[in-house]
Fold these 2 entries.
Entry 1:
Amino acid sequence: MTPTLPTPNAPRDATTAAPHPRALSYFRTTATATRVLRQLGHDARTIALMLLVPCLMLFLLRYVFDGSPRVFDSIGASLLGIFPLITMFLVTSIATLRERTSGTLERLLAMPLGKGDLIAGYALAFGTLAIIQSALATGLAVWFLDLDVTGSPWLLLLVALLDALLGTALGLFVSAFASSEFQAVQFMPAVIFPQLLLCGLFTARANMHPALEAISDALPMSYAVDAMNEVLRHTDMTAAFVRDASIVAGCALLVLILGAATLRRRTR
Amino acid sequence: MMNYPPGKSASPPPDPATDNASPPAPGTQSAPAIHAENLTVVRGPRTVLRGLDFDVPQGQITGLLGPSGCGKSTLMRSIVGTQDKVTGTLQVLGHPAGAPTLRSRIGYVTQAPSVYDDLSVRQNLHYFAAILDPGRAAADRRHDNVARAIADVDLTSHADALAGTLSGGQRSRVSLAVALLGTPELLVLDEPTVGLDPVLRRDLWDLFHSLAADRRATLLISSHVMDEAERCHRLLLMREGEILADDTPEALRTRTHTDTVEAAFLHLVDEAATTASPQKERNR
């Protein structure tokens, strides 16, 4: 310790003097992401469940459709997009609900942390996990379960990542409307199941009742599944793929912004 | 004088007229750290704070005392800027309460410990330190600040334990350590010594006094334990959303001809009940 020496304190003064911190601070965002990952790091069981359950489901599915591999191709590819969405939705809604109820959110928002930093931090942390989860599931499906993809597995991974971000965004958003973990978990059937039924996983969307088809056109998961099927059938990146992937990304961004609006600095 | 009409939030936007009249002077010793005029807070159907007028001087420990539910926590939330529906004037360190520039200058400890149970003590502090003092260049300073804050609350031996596995008193000390990171000019502590043993309480009060004396920090500390009042430089006694008295402990005891602050408080409550107007007492 050298208290007599004028140690370079200038950087701190510079940051504290700034009346309006930048909308998004790289350092605070990555610090938040690191913190979220550290929290999960103390919870090995959750990580194992997140990473292994999708693989197990794909494995089961492969042998459920043992006699009709074409069905496995279609459903398997769709599920590669749906798993990250569901997992990230559940994890994010519970994690942010805990942040809201434990008082840490109030504390953070009383500090020089931008709402964007917090949301981007969560998205970054869960996005990282989603990449690992999707890589494991995609690798297993393509190399070991003989999922027949015409296009590049990298595109599957890209859609899976966008789906994960969408799940993170939706989870963040609905956590504002849940006052307990019980409610948060119930949002999963309320928000995810209708999309699951209408996304084209069970039957082609064109075969649905016109009213339902119209609704499915408005739900983001439909585009996630469509994008997966594009990769399944075409060697190149088609225009339809680009459109579908952009819609999923756009929805994720929109819901993330809505989620940021639900973070209130002031309690009523 | 009212900066803001009722129904509007106290922080945005600052009234240019009042800003010019009282320029923010954080370095001036004479300016109060907190200045409130006709401060009113409504939560749902209840008016929790009813037109409070008070000043909190800089560099001193001000105790905020009163029974549970009298509005202490709401007042503290208003000061740190996390309370909605605040009307009247509330200036903190020369800025309207809740101004973004204040966020790194105020340390705030909520009544319930607000830390991450699934992180270790050190990881908790490192995260909050990164938010307060960001940048790779500040890594060494953050490391020192974290070590010092852990030592300040006497948790060095538990630094690597998960916060969730600690006892209630230990968890609230982790929460307090977060507020001690950096060098806050104003510390707002909501019942920081509840549930702590006498030795630790004494040590924390010594720490509070050294913060005020050495770092010229202003401390606002709430408690419903009246014996802690004797350790404060000044006291704000609250009851049912109003301020019953605003004075030094000695002056309170002398004025009410009592030996303890607790007796003084009871005397003032009885007096307010008989005159049926606490307003008169405050203005005397």
Entry 2:
Amino acid sequence: MKVFPLKKLIGIVDSPDSGFDISSRILGRIDVAGQEVWITQTVVTTWVIMAALIIFAFFVRSRIKYFTDEPKGLQNVVELGVESMYKLVCNCMTEKYAYFGKWFFGIFCFILTSNISGLLGFRAPTADLATTAAVTAATFFMIHFMGIKTGKLGYFKGYLEPLPFMLPLNIVSEMATPISLSFRLFGNIMGGMVIMTLIYSLPRWLNFGIPAVFHVYFDLFAGVIQTVVFVMLSMTFIKDKIAD
Amino acid sequence: MDDPRAFVLGCSAIGAGLAMFSGLGPGIGQGFAAGKGAEAVGRQPEARSTITSTMLLGCAVAESTGIYGLVVALLLMFANPFIGQL
């Protein structure tokens, strides 16, 4: 697939520091069992974010030797995060399924860090459909795993309701869930990134202070909202399939 | 005008512009949701946090059709599938 030569069309000068390439650039290629695997910007940024999160986790663990009844300092921050996630899980699912919070807290931290990594000059990994599709695949698996685990045969019967000939429609609507979930996150972050790239390609004297305002909206605000929405929708979809 | 790609590129640009008309629906829907949310907060100020989170969730769901339009427009502009078929 050829890439559209927009650069030439709207006359942006092709200089290394004001590039107009929004696709995830390929930094290297390696061979894995005869199959070429691309090391894109997304892969590198994802590993950087994972390393940062793991180092932060170890840092927190080493600073807090044991938890006290009266929280102080760093313990406050940790308790705030864990407690608000617990409340969110209890709201969206029930207290019985609060153990999903452990998984979703990790997903929340990863997506949030990815979304706001644009502030540090990275190319946000969530602006790549591969990342969002991977996270959504996990949600998709959990939706149907929990459906079969709790509903047993009732899960399969649910596809024949309200009438048996609705089966294809029900399957299509099941397939639409992961697509809408992944495209929502991808489209929001990607759209913000395209607009930021357009703003940075303005003349240099317009690039003083103005991008900061847009960064606050597109990276911080939209990033946080979309993370919360992604996690909340995943929980709601899983809860909908659980037969109680 | 000898290059047939010019026609395809121009039509793709028009198509990308038309695809962004899908932003119309979510705009109306989100405005409606925000208005109803403000109404609900006015009637019941103590339930503010619940109303806000429910409204944001609804807004995000309403936004998805607009996002599909945006993805189509981005595809037409940056990863044009038609230009390779010439």
